[in-house]
Amino acid sequence: MNSWVRLHEDDHVIIALQPFAKGEKLLLEADGVNELELLDDVPKGHKILTRKVCAGEHVLKFGYSIGVAKEDLAPGSWVHTHNMGTGLKGFLDYSYEPGKQERRETRAARDEARTFQGFVRDNGEVGIRNEIWIINTVGCINKTCEIVARKAHALYEGRVDGVYHFAHPFGCSQLGDDLVHTQKLLASLVNHPNAAGVLVIGLGCENNQIDAFKRAIGEHSPERIKFLKSQEAEDEIEEALELIGELVGYAERFKREPVPVSKLKLGLKCGGSDGLSGITANPLVGAVSDRLIAAGGTAILTEVPEMFGAETILMNRAADEQVFGKIVSLINDFKQYFIKHDQEIYENPSPGNKAGGISTLEEKSLGCTQKGGHAIVQDVVPYGERITSSGLNLLEAPGNDLVSVTALSAGGAHIVLFTTGRGTPFGGPVPTVKIATNSELADRKKNWIDFNAGQLLEDKSMETLTDELWEQLISLASGETRTNNERNGFKEIAIFKDGVIL
Predict the structure, then answer these.
(1) Quick one: angle between helices 236-251 and 142-155, nearest 10?
(2) What are the phi and psi torsion angles at 481 (to 5°)?
C-alpha cells in the first residue's frame, strides 16, 4: 500500500494515506531523487505541500484551487485551516459557453439489456420494495402513527416488506412557502413507488388539512392511498389498522418481475467526509452513476452548498442553455438564502470534515461533485418535487444528511448511495447504502457500513470495485439483500425548514 497519493499532476499537495511525524522523509519520485522532509506532524487523510506557495497564492488539489495560502508555505508543510483559507468570494458572474461543454458521456451496451426484479405499479412506475408507508400530515400525531406502524408491522409481517412511519414535527402553524414545502415533500413521499400502499393520517385542525394535502398529492388510486382524520375517529388506532389491512391486500397483488435497469434511480450523497472521500468513495459512486446513466437510468445529485466552488464543473456539463440557467439560479438562490440569514456563504466544512482533512468549502465541493461522475446534467429540480428526466439531475436541498437524503427519496430515488469517512447509522425512507472511504471505518463499523471503497488504496482497481458495487445494487434492487439501515430499522425523514411558525 502506498503511503501517499497525488490526485493531479498540477497539484501542490499530496494526501497522506497514513499518519506521518515531523522529520520523516518521503520519496516523491520512484528513483528517490526528490526527497521531502516533513516540517509538521500530518494526520492520515490530510495534505502535505510538495511545492512552495507564497501568501495569497492558490493551492491546487484535484487540479483546481482549494483555497489561498494565508502565509508563505514551504514544501513539507502540513496544509490545513491554520495556514490556508477559502478563495471564494460573494456572487460570481457565469456565462454560457457551449465550446467549453464537457461531453465525456459514453454508452455501455453491456448494461442496456440488464434487468432487476422489481414491482411494476399500476401507473407504470417501478418500486424495489413492497412496503406500506404511514405519512402524517402534522407532527402532533407522531406517537399515534408510531404505535400503528409497530402493531401493523407485527400483524402483517411476511405479507409485505414492512410497515413504516416517518416522524416529523411540521404541518401546523407554518405560513406561506414553508407550509407549501412541507406539503410538496410529504406528497412526493406518498407518491414513491417503493410504497405499495400509503395511509395518510391527519389530526383535523392542522394547517396541512387532508383535503388540501390531497391536492398536493394529485391524481391517485383510492386503493393505494387511504386517509384518516384522527379527531373524527372513535378509535383512530383500530381504524388505522383496518385501513392498513386493506392496503396490505392491495400490495399483495404485486409480485417481483424483470424490469430494465434503466428504471433505477440513484440518489447521491456524502456525509462525515474525510480527506479520502474525494479519492475513493466519491469517484467510485461517480463511476457507478455514469454506468447507470449510460444504461438509460437516473442519478440525482444534491447538497447545493457543497457545490459552491465546483459549480462551473457542473455548468460546463449542462445539456443546453436552459439547463445552464437553472444551475446558475440553483447556486445563486442558495447563496441568497445564506445572505438572508446573515450567514457567511462560504462557511468552512463541519468539525468532522476538518478533522478528516478537508480544509475549505471548495475542497469539500470538488470532492463532493465527483459523485455525479461525468454525465451531462439533464435537469434541475426544486426542493420537494419529483425527478422526471432520466440521466443526471441536480436537486435543490442543503447538505444536511437527514434533510438531503429525505429530499432524494422524495425526488424518486430508489436507493441512496451515501459515502462517508466518519460513519453514521442514519438511513432514509429508501435503502441507504453506506460506502466507507477507508478500510479502518469499514472494519470497525460493520453494522453501519455496506461497502468498503477504501479497498481502492489496497488491492482493488476502480474497475473491479465498480463491478462489485454495481452487482450489489442490482441484488439490493431485486430484494435479494438488505442494507444495514433496513436491517437495523433506521428509516427516518427530516423536512427543510425556512419560514415562520406561529
Answers:
(1) 50
(2) -135, 165
90: left (phi over 0), alpha (psi -120 to 50) or beta: left
Pairing of strands 4-5, 47-49: unpaired
User: Residue 402: what are its φ and ψ, rounded to 5°?
Assistant: -65, -45
Q: Return the SS3 of 486.
A: helix
| pLDDT digits 0-9 by tens, 110-147 | 788 899 999 999 999 999 999 999 999 999 999 999 99
Sheet holding 64-69, edge to edge: 58-61, 64-69, 84-85
Q: Which three cell numbers stand for residue 172?
A: 401546523
Classified by CATH at the fold level, domain 131-253 comes out as Rossmann fold (3.40.50)
By the 8 A CB rule, do 372 and 266 touch?
A: no
At 104, is the pLDDT very low, low, confident or very high (cuts 50, 70, 90)?
Answer: low
Decide: residue 225, CB within 10 A, 0-12 exposed, 13-18 middle, 19+ buried.
buried
Please report the DSSP string for 208-256 in residue order. S-HHHHHHHH-S--TTTEEEEEGGG-SSHHHHHHHHHHHHHHHHTT---
Alpha-carbon span 147 to 462, nearest angstrom: 45
Per residue in 1-58, pLDDT tens?
678 988 888 999 999 989 999 999 998 875 455 789 999 999 999 999 999 999 999 9
Q: Where are the domains of the chain?
A: 4-85, 131-253, 261-487
Question: Is domain 4-85 classified as CATH 2.30.130.110?
Answer: yes
Average pLDDT of 429-458? 96
What integer is the mean pLDDT of 410-431? 96
Decide if 119 contacts 256 (C-beta within 8 A). yes
